[in-house]
Design goal:
The chain is of the alpha+beta class. Helices cover about 30% and strands about 30% of the residues. The longest helix has 24 residues, at about 185-210.
Length: about 240
Amino acid sequence: MKHLILYLFFFSLSICTFAQPEDDSEKDHVRVTLADGTCIDGYVQEYWVSGKLFKRFNTSFTLSPKADGKDAVTYNADNVKCIEFVKKTSPDGKYDKLLSKVVANPSILKPKRTRKQFVYEEGGNDIGEIYWWNGIDSQNMQLGKMNITTIYGICLRGDSVIVPFMTGNVISLNAMRIRYKKTNPGLVDYVDKRILKGGKKLWDKLAYSPMIFLEICNEYFARQNNETTNKQCKK
């Protein structure tokens, strides 16, 4: 499903037709909830992953009140709460809703940099949620290649920032190390050792089912709680 969304957005929408065939207009029909709670119905004319050169993905889109594309207005993640497609593409509607969330976007000069963007929620448990979005594969970009891939991030309960941990099928904990360097360094060390110990078999499982990453984090917190309980019992 994610690959289908990626294909439709990047290839079909990169050329962004402002006058779409009437039969296809409903696939662009969305209901937008703004940050102030106002709801707006309209038709997307330029998607958040339009593929334009130098344009930041997942941060803005253009919406028209009618399918004809007239009077289009640009909205960005800072003033939008969520986007819901009126025409559902999956039985549970899981991939038909995007949320505006703060995501860690570290760089060499600005390691603590964040930005608000649109993401899909994959799932969650007692310790947090997993989110995903389609974006540029930064690792391949360093090799002179530009391609779009699915990026996954985790937002721990009590935190307000989604931290990327996997791009495509490549796991990287750099953003987590920066985010939790002072507040929870033990978490990243545990996850790192657990993933390395699991080897390629675990890496392949994570690429297929990213929710496993949340389970690994849950293991760490469960151990921490058990250790705390044991210490209290000994006192």
